[in-house]
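Per-record layout

source: Vibrio marinisediminis
name: Substrate-binding domain-containing protein
length: 278
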Amino acid sequence: MKATISIKATVSYTLATASIALFSYSAHAEDQSHVRLATTTSTYHSGLLDYLLPEFEKDTGYKVDVIAAGTGKSLKMGENGDVDLVMTHAPKAEANFVEKGYGVLPRKLMYNDFVLVGPQADPAKIAQQKNVAEAFKQIASANATFVSRGDDSGTHKKELGIWAQTKMEPNFTGYRSVGQGMGPTLNMASEMQGYTMTDRGTWLAYNNKLDLKILVQGDKNLFNPYQVILVNPERYPTINYNGAKVFSDWLVNTRGQELINSFKLNGKQLFVANANEK
């Protein structure tokens, strides 16, 4: 008897879940005034989207629903047709996303850079190091604490790329992979007095609350470009492609680019618009 009840409950739950999903799917197909954006935590935590979206909504009437999940998860949502466009910062993963037919109309949007931050005491002695890969080697050799996002984000992908350049595996005792966004990762690094790599925008948004400082910056390997890519409407006909394209057009044209350049925190520019660069 218990087995029968369990089976019925499971069937009822499955049908209810399917009904909710169908309702959500239908509601989105009918409501074309909303655009679903999957993006990195850096555009969210830095405050950039809070700055841009009210202006876009005022200019166009579209409402943008933001899911800040990191580059890997954002691209996966695009692959599944769960969003209308993505704003990410991992060039190789983005190229793969487009090549496989999930994304269309990839456009340069803006850039900033990554920085390597750590404790004032700098136990790995990397403060004078100009080469970020060499700084990573020193941290591993010193078995110092390094806090990695570990979340398949653009920042995490960049970090793993740098470890690959060192030809060292990040498996030393001090390495901590936390599976968190940039803000929580910075807080953990500060609490543990460890090193971490962060995009400059999130650093500027958080640094006044942290007991850390920038130790390595300026290496060309730390360049951090962002793109905006539409989800392919041929693969997912019900997405709001028209609204997504309006948003993409707005971002890469004069209005959006000027606003990106004018966004500052504590008097410092966080992103540089580059849609018009060849």
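summary: Confidence is low (pLDDT under 50) at residues 1-29. Residues 34-112+225-273 form a domain with the D-Maltodextrin-Binding Protein; domain 2 fold (CATH 3.40.190.10).
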